[in-house]
Specification:
The protein is an alpha/beta fold. The protein has 4 domains: 2-98, no CATH class; 115-168, no CATH class; 196-366, P-loop containing nucleotide triphosphate hydrolases (Rossmann fold, 3-Layer(aba) Sandwich); 375-573, 3-Layer(aba) Sandwich (Rossmann fold). 37% of the residues lie in helices and 20% in strands. The chain contains 23 helices and 25 strands. The longest helix has 14 residues, at 248-261. The termini are far apart.
Length: 574
């Protein structure tokens, strides 16, 4: 049995295994794509059909963001080419109905936490489950189970693994108060206020101060001002806050934004890094320092920072990069308000369920193309340029193992002529050349003389190079993967990616994000990915592009001979 009749003009085909095909040539493609991104995961994106899957986690995230099973069914029926298999509609109803069936609540008067459900059979099943039972104290009645002290995070992790996400309504401990307010004018006199979508994101997270708010993830494009949204949340909660970011440069950008857009004085903001150990009402730290230990078998000596301040809020910037050791600490911090900020929920380690359980479910998500159309982020043209492998490397490549094949193809010297042309194509633009392999980047640095930033570049030198780039003293810089995340370079409008991290979808999104801040004039940015054709480099490039394809970006394919012919024509014309 299935629902509705055929509608051949529509782009969606739903199959009984919960996979979804989306026809790219349909006039309804963009609308259907944006709808699917709310409750389905993109699997792959060849030219004519994009392949999605509807999963329990994608449905639970949709439910937490306000979708209902009826919403999902209605949208699928509106845009489906054929009748929807009835089992898929049943699955949507069942899985979305599981969110909230189990609630985590405080039990008066002793303050212990309990699991509660109106479904007595579910309560009995949970209590007798071998994987969950060690976390439970006792069954209080047919609807209520008391959990053991300190198991708030562990019980949520355990229950989502057996298919029952918990709605955590147990509330939060207040931290020390913080006198903070947003400025009307920035330090340089520019008017400041949260943009409409930023206000919506903060409101969705805060939920009026109710227990249903206070933990969750906000998903917005790079360049959309996630730091400002985080500051908006801090100003709403008004309690001591710990902010975790990806590196020291990002940490200091948080400090600069806080000083620029709030009434906080410098002595209210502390840096806890390898260079400084300050604990202040707002303390900024990095994932690297929290996961530092002298030897592999020793303890993480800085994780105590979570307990050294009376935090009312902990902000996890780029939450998709949250390291596993920090997850373990987060499991013990469920009584603190938690905010995750990210451009993508994709994790290469597939720990999306842990983000859902421990940081919180997705509270707000906006398609990248929506913000682009509204002018809040730059329009980006994405181009993949395929070059041939050097003739002398063909035999070496053929005999290499899989990992070596990828590196040989990534470092292909034929890419240099292509880079020459792209730099000439953008004579007045601000260019980032980004790559994975230091040897390759150092070779490029010798060719062009542009400054280079790698993991070994001292923080002071990084900040000087970034400053020169921002202020126009340097038009082109070369950066390794250290610049993938949380680097504010508003004038950058061209990225040339010469190599990447295998099939990392989140890396591709972050690299495009380096150029998405709004531009004056035509608000145009250019993202080039230079890959070696018919090699592992090209195979992994197609995987890296997957998330951006879901967000509405399409890659134009250029071949190196066409690029070089274009360059030759320009030289002859000149």
């Amino acid at each position: 049995m299935s629902s509705v009749s055929n509608n051949p003009e529509m782009p969606i085909i739903v199959q009984s295994d919960r996979s979804v095909l989306l026809e790219t040539q349909s006039p309804h493609f963009e609308t259907a794509r944006d709808i699917l991104s709310g409750f389905a995961e993109l699997v792959k994106s060849p030219e004519h059909f994009h392949y999605y899957r509807i999963t329990p986690l994608s449905l639970w995230n949709a439910a937490s963001a306000g979708w209902t099973a009826e919403d999902v069914a209605t949208h699928l029926q509106t845009y489906s080419k054929y009748a929807i298999p009835q089992n898929v509609l049943n699955d949507v109803t069942e899985y979305m109905g599981r969110y909230g069936r189990l609630q985590l609540l405080p039990a008066e008067p002793n303050g212990a936490l309990v699991l509660r459900s109106q479904d007595t059979a579910l309560v009995r099943d949970i209590y007798n489950n071998n994987s969950v039972r060690p976390l439970l104290q006792k069954k209080l009645d047919n609807h209520t189970i008391q959990i053991k002290d300190g198991m708030r995070g562990a019980i949520k992790q355990s229950l989502i693994k057996i298919g029952f996400p918990v709605e955590d309504l147990a509330g939060y401990e207040d931290g020390d108060p913080l006198d903070i307010s947003l400025r009307d004018l920035t330090l340089n006199g520019q008017p400041f206020s949260l943009r409409p979508y930023q206000q919506q994101a903060v409101a969705a997270y805060y939920a009026g101060g109710a227990a249903v708010g206070g933990s969750g993830v906000l998903v917005l494009p790079c360049g959309a001002g996630k730091t400002v949204i985080g500051i908006g949340a801090i100003s709403r909660i008004r309690q001591h806050t710990l902010v975790l970011s990806t590196n020291i440069v990002a940490l200091r950008q948080w400090r600069d934004e806080l000083l620029d857009k709030t009434n906080l004085s410098p002595d209210m903001i502390g840096e806890y890094s390898g260079e400084v150990k300050q604990i202040r009402p707002i303390t900024l730290t990095t994932y690297q320092i929290l996961t530092y230990r002298k030897k592999r078998e020793e303890e993480f000596i800085h994780l105590n920072l979570f307990n050294e301040g009376h935090w009312g809020l902990i902000v996890y910037d780029e939450v998709h990069l949250l390291p596993a050791p920090v997850f373990r600490a987060v499991a013990n911090l469920q009584a603190r308000r938690r905010l995750g900020l990210t451009a993508t929920l994709v994790r290469e380690d597939e720990k999306e369920e842990d983000v859902f359980s421990l940081i919180g479910p997705k509270k707000y998500d906006v398609p990248w193309k929506v913000l682009e159309k509204q002018g809040w982020i730059a329009q980006a043209l994405c181009t993949e340029i395929r070059v041939s492998l050097q003739d002398e490397l063909r035999l070496t490549y053929a005999e290499a193992d899989q990992k070596s094949k990828f590196r040989i193809a990534s470092e292909n010297l034929e890419k240099l002529s292509c880079i020459d042309h792209l730099i000439e194509r953008h004579p007045d633009d601000h260019i980032l050349i980004i790559g994975q392999y230091i040897d390759q980047l150092e070779l490029i640095q010798k060719r062009y003389g542009a400054p280079i930033i790698t993991g070994k570049t001292p923080t002071r030198d990084r900040e000087r190079i970034y400053s020169d780039f921002r202020e126009g003293r340097q038009r082109c810089i070369i950066v390794s993967k250290v610049a993938n995340f949380a680097i504010d370079l508003p004038d950058a409008n061209v990225v040339i990616q010469v190599s990447g991290t295998f099939g990392s979808r989140q890396e591709e999104a972050q690299r495009l994000g380096r150029i998405l801040r709004p531009k004056s004039g035509d608000n145009q940015a250019y993202f080039y990915s230079v890959v070696t054709r018919e090699t592992k480099d090209q195979d992994f490039a197609s995987k890296r592009q997957l998330f951006l394809t879901e967000q509405g970006y399409r890659y134009t394919i250029e071949l190196d001979e066409n690029v070089l012919e274009d360059r030759k024509d320009q030289e002859e014309a000149g």
